[in-house]
Write a structure and sequence with these properties.
With about 140 residues, the protein is mainly alpha-helical. The chain is built from six helices and two strands; from the N terminus they run H-H-H-E-E-H-H-H. The two termini are about 50 Å apart.
């Protein structure tokens, strides 16, 4: 499981995910500069770090690289949720608490997701019927 992205890493990856195409450092820089003052070398370093960590792949395009996301924002979010859930000493209680924090919109999204994945869940194995003990309290015929 990859670790959670830092603030600037997340800002960069948000653009890469939103644009959903190969991007250059210059494109990301120009978009980030609409919100904050940031240097080209800072964005270049962040994108190189994201490449080293396996978040993006890159291809040479002239004298620059073009970066593409390796996975989706949804896959990243799911991995974070799974990691947090798997670290709980009581996963059922963690889910109950998580569901309690959800907004109405989030609960609706969860219900939609469950409708999508429910058909893929395997049926639980059938349990053989238990033999009822005799009404008079005598042990069953097989001696148990």
């Amino acid at each position: 499981m990859p670790r959670q992205l830092g603030e600037l890493e997340d800002a960069v990856m948000t653009r890469v995910w939103q644009w959903n195409r190969p991007v250059t450092v210059r494109e990301v820089l120009e978009d980030l500069q609409q919100e904050r003052s940031i240097a080209y070398t800072t964005v270049m370093t962040v994108m190189d770090n994201l490449h080293q960590k396996g978040w993006v792949r890159r291809e040479v395009d002239g004298r620059a690289y073009r970066y593409t996301a390796v996975s989706t924002r949804a896959a990243y979010s799911a991995a974070l949720m799974n990691e947090a859930w798997s670290r709980s000493d009581n996963p059922a209680a963690a889910l109950v608490a998580f569901f309690g924090m959800m907004s109405a919109g989030q609960r609706e999204a969860l219900q939609d997701a469950m409708r999508i994945v429910a058909p893929t869940f395997p049926e639980p194995p059938a349990t053989p019927p238990q033999e009822a003990p005799p009404a008079d309290g005598a042990p069953p015929e097989d001696g148990r």
